[in-house]
């Protein structure tokens, strides 16, 4: 046994996880840094498992649900540059136009058929309909969308190249906050009536 | 003189620029890589100078002009993780809602008064009006806008944390390409008439 | 229409994909660089879709199958720092002890039950059994394994924080190449007979 | 309104800034990490604005002034890999030979005419004179200088590819600290009298 | 003297180390982040010197010794992406098969003759014998080994592209912890007797 | 044997080095990219060995010698973020004041005694004398120097956190090229006579 400790000391230079940065499970109670959360000082197998990757509740306006396993839900991905989420689309369900400032995304369809697309910086449109077992790439920061293209429920796994991709939904950004109607109209050329109508739907003020 | 060459050889290990990667001026004629363009094999001081950073033509619908010095216009920034652009706003000029997938941005007002703002992933709105000599940060990938808040022309310098930030204008992405009206309506809840009207303005088809 | 091209020129600074590095679909026919493959000069929606993410053939010694969507199979992930693979385990199937030099990994169980684990640099063992919808993290470069813990087929999606994670199977590295038995025995303390036996299985010479 | 919170929860996974790392405004009171300062837990628009980017006082030996907006003066750039500074040069003003260990730099002349140059690792000299609206690149870590080439005041904006570029002025490093004259002479071959003279100017001891 | 402080303020923007991130000497008493340890608030020359890089004790089973100067032993390398270690091999000494999850390695032989090799992801074997003054590369995360090929003691300096490379020895990972014999046998095809024998040597339980 | 190829295909996804980016040995005949040289398409063990790390010729003005193993001399370090060099100092030998724009450095003394030091951005001086087996850190981009502090030859190994650190010697940058005396004097305050004298030594013109 002594020999083992000796070898460990020689080759692993540590008997604790915290000082061997194989991983850095987030201590969500500490302030973040630009590289992520500080590391928990001790971990168990439980820290590395995420168990809530189940079908979400799609009984809402857009008939979709996203179940994230990002760093705030799954601290083990802190610092690893990777995370995932589950997407469920009821019949007729849609994920409205949105983008992720911090990650490229892969969508893997696991059930049903999903139409998905993105628009590039060169303003080209890339749209396709995916069946079970097909994968599409959404490059980082570009507007994209998905909707159920079939007659039954659809589901997909979303993979992100960041532990915290962030999301921005166009409708929420324009109509779901205190951004004034005047500002929205000026910066989008949308009509006043249209803006008011959507602010009512998305709960925006001003 | 021999001594110098000797010292150079010892300490600079090179007599050519290309093999001392102080810089990598883009060879725009070669295919890009994920890290940028391959390097030009020989350079002169001219390669490091950009001379067209002048006031742009704002006689257009939005009464604004952006003069970029990105890698495609200024190959010397290739690989340096930095670039810049000049913004000019005529009276009443506006930069419509847009985002940059690849860079955070600083705006430095050099003339007039500019109202600028962005919306965060947490859907908070950050808006302010800047006078000459004031700077605002736009974090990477988030929707933001600027407009002339004064009674005279306004100008600003835009600084980006990438040699190729990319830009996506919401109106262009939604109304300026072949994305079908049906898709736009489905993913934004905008009315059909509104979408048709804006497609007419921005030249979108479908 | 002119106005659109104008806006595009101002804000997207490009009319081609290649010079707006939203993405860099690999040109697999060109030599790689440390950041990945050079970019294809023109792309279509087909470049962004992977369609072969189906159940693999598990009729082999270990009764498992891995279907990769890495950069060599799915060029669209080039430079994005992300890729995926599908794992299928027949009843009794096992993925032998291995590591990925270039990526951390998430395993998401989509069918059946899978026992998985890894060993840390501090030589701690982390093992658990995952059911459908559970996720485990394998930190970069650490030895790990999976096997079917149930009485039916099991499947999982593997997510990697690199477009080209690389893989090293301990048995293949020790017994499946020309590494001499003497070297294997000296560096592992395995018995000669054991090494010979496994070289026979894994086709090693020397 | 409920629907909005729901969408936010689904797509932004957060109702606070701190856990959505769109940005990481520096908490200057906490110890730095290799990636920068920890993030402030709550921010307002004021955190994103810098208002002191005005002409500096050039009544000094070199007749120049640098007004930095680096992370210590402008905490919002923390973690963004970008910062800026304003340079003012009185008639005859000079920025002495210096380098920035942590950033490449762009200089944009906004008033007057400035001669600027740098020396490469291959010991090539790159010098030019810039007029208003011209930009020059200084690659990271290389010695460079600027001086007023005109008959009136000159100003420029300096852009850096780091939130904290650091600066090292050759004269200060050699003559403005406790580095002994003997060491300076030995490592530069400067004459003793010259070293003493400059130490007197720059306040060096030893 | 006033002029100096003035210049310092203008150009270095700091009078403390902590806020000029030239370096970030680790505060080992604080929790790590994904980018390393937080920085010590004040440092002296002593913080930058490592003095224990001497010949280690090789009186152990494998007759080798590794003396690390990683971040936990040499806090000054924190955040610098570099570290080193000294290797000593007695006559007949061997470093067993291992890998480093976080770093590529260079071995520089300084005394004697050392046989070293690694196995690639493509399962190719690269082996050679190095004499004093020869260097070999071990790419990140790949299994490699070294042993004394001569009739006298051998020594080498090991250079790593990380301040905390981490190490995983195959024998320790398989036989030196609580990983059950059943799991080892299942994931390696090693015989039960062999596993028990090596667990006895390396102190594994289960 | 078939089984092996099968396993390799499944787990290594390659039968060539080039498409498994364990390493990227530089093809020095191709243009560099910002991430380094393109990779050689096929390699052997010879590509990974550097054999010229011997004592250099110190019969020169400064009585020192640097033998680099950077990417241009040792293509195997391409893309690995690491390189090394050997330093030899004759009695009285000195490495003049210099900096490396692209790397932090460790100096390991292997023979004799060496005085070494650097100056920080905060203009603090860090100097010490190292004996055999002692290590000092030089943070990236900061001016530093070394000289033989003993009565016999001294040698050291230099470790860099880049495959191509670049070097800039103050005397060469100021006096060993075509930078005009007037420019040197203006940007350093050195006397004309001093500049002429050193230009004569270092072979500068103008």
Automatic annotation (TrEMBL), chains A, B, C, D, E, F:
Q: What is its main location?
A: secreted
- Keyword check for Protein transport, yes or no: no
Q: Which domain of life does the protein's organism represent?
A: Eukaryota
Cellular component GO terms, alphabetically? apoplast
Which Cys pairs are S-S linked? 24-39
Q: Where in the cell is it found?
A: Secreted, Extracellular space, Apoplast
Annotated Cupin type-1 domain ranges read 51-196
* Name of this protein: Germin-like protein
According to its UniProt entry, this protein's organism is Vicia faba (Broad bean)
């Amino acid at each position: 046994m002594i020999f083992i400790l000796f070898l460990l000391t020689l080759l692993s230079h540590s008997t604790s996880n915290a000082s061997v940065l194989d991983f850095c499970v987030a201590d969500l109670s500490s302030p973040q840094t630009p590289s992520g959360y500080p590391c928990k000082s001790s971990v168990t197998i439980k820290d590395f498992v995420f168990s809530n990757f189940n079908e979400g509740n799609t009984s809402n306006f857009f008939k979709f649900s996203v179940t994230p396993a990002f760093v705030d839900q799954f601290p083990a991905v802190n610092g690893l540059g990777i995370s995932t989420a589950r997407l469920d689309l009821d019949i007729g369900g849609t994920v409205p136009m949105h983008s992720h400032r911090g990650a490229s995304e892969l969508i893997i369809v696991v059930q049903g058929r999903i139409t998905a697309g993105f628009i590039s910086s060169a303003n080209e449109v890339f749209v396709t309909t995916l069946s079970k077992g097909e994968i599409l790439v959404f490059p980082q920061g570009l507007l994209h969308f998905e909707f159920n293209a079939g007659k039954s429920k659809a589901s997909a796994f979303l993979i992100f190249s960041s532990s915290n991709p962030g999301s921005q939904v166009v409708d929420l950004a324009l109509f779901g906050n205190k951004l004034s109607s005047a500002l929205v109209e000026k910066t989008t050329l949308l009509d006043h009536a249209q803006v008011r109508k959507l602010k009512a739907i998305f709960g925006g003020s001003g």
